[in-house]
């Protein structure tokens, strides 16, 4: 059989509420946490419904906060943010709302900034090689090729 339950039901609910209070959480992260505590499917679903109705969980709010945070702190591009939201099983609707959190001007400005910063550390034998390395770097951060091309044209 599975893992033994870590906390009694009332304590489980109290602890998961406190955990959700610390920061926005995806439904899938909450389910994973509850499962790790030895709580199983029907009860997990019931607890998630309670958390949603008590406004501890809100998928739209999570998606928006996730997109803002990953962009501002880690300087991720939209493609990487979108991929992570999908991995966390966030709905297409909430992902679309999260995309609205990223201002186009700020987005391209941040891309330009990270490319300029990376340019100082990249070793290359030619300008072509340098540009290829910078493009690969930016694509790896989750920026689209079109956006990278726009910004690279400024150098």
Automatic annotation (TrEMBL):
<dbReference type="InterPro" id="IPR053924">
    <property type="entry name" value="RecX_HTH_2nd"/>
</dbReference>
<dbReference type="InterPro" id="IPR036388">
    <property type="entry name" value="WH-like_DNA-bd_sf"/>
</dbReference>
<dbReference type="GO" id="GO:0006282">
    <property type="term" value="P:regulation of DNA repair"/>
</dbReference>
<feature type="domain" description="RecX second three-helical">
    <location>
        <begin position="58"/>
        <end position="96"/>
    </location>
</feature>
<dbReference type="Pfam" id="PF21981">
    <property type="entry name" value="RecX_HTH3"/>
</dbReference>
<dbReference type="GO" id="GO:0005737">
    <property type="term" value="C:cytoplasm"/>
</dbReference>
<dbReference type="Pfam" id="PF02631">
    <property type="entry name" value="RecX_HTH2"/>
</dbReference>
<dbReference type="InterPro" id="IPR003783">
    <property type="entry name" value="Regulatory_RecX"/>
</dbReference>
<feature type="domain" description="RecX third three-helical">
    <location>
        <begin position="105"/>
        <end position="152"/>
    </location>
</feature>
<dbReference type="InterPro" id="IPR053925">
    <property type="entry name" value="RecX_HTH_3rd"/>
</dbReference>
<keyword id="KW-0963">Cytoplasm</keyword>
<comment type="similarity">
    <text>Belongs to the RecX family.</text>
</comment>
<protein>
    <recommendedName>
        <fullName>Regulatory protein RecX</fullName>
    </recommendedName>
</protein>
């Amino acid at each position: 059989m599975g893992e033994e339950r870590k906390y009694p039901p009332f304590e489980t609910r109290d602890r998961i509420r406190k955990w959700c209070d610390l920061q926005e959480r995806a439904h899938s992260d909450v389910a994973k946490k509850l499962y790790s505590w030895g709580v199983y499917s029907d009860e997990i679903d019931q607890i998630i419904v309670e958390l949603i109705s008590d406004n501890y969980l809100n998928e739209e709010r999570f998606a928006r906060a996730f997109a803002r945070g990953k962009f501002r702190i880690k300087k991720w591009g939209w493609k990487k943010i979108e991929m992570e939201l999908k991995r966390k099983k966030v709905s297409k609707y909430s992902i679309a709302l999260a995309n609205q959190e990223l201002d186009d001007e700020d987005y391209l400005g941040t891309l330009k900034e990270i490319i300029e910063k990376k340019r100082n550390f990249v070793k290359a034998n030619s300008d072509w090689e340098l540009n290829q390395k910078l493009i690969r770097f930016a694509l790896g951060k989750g920026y689209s090729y079109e956006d990278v091309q726009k910004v690279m044209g400024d150098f």
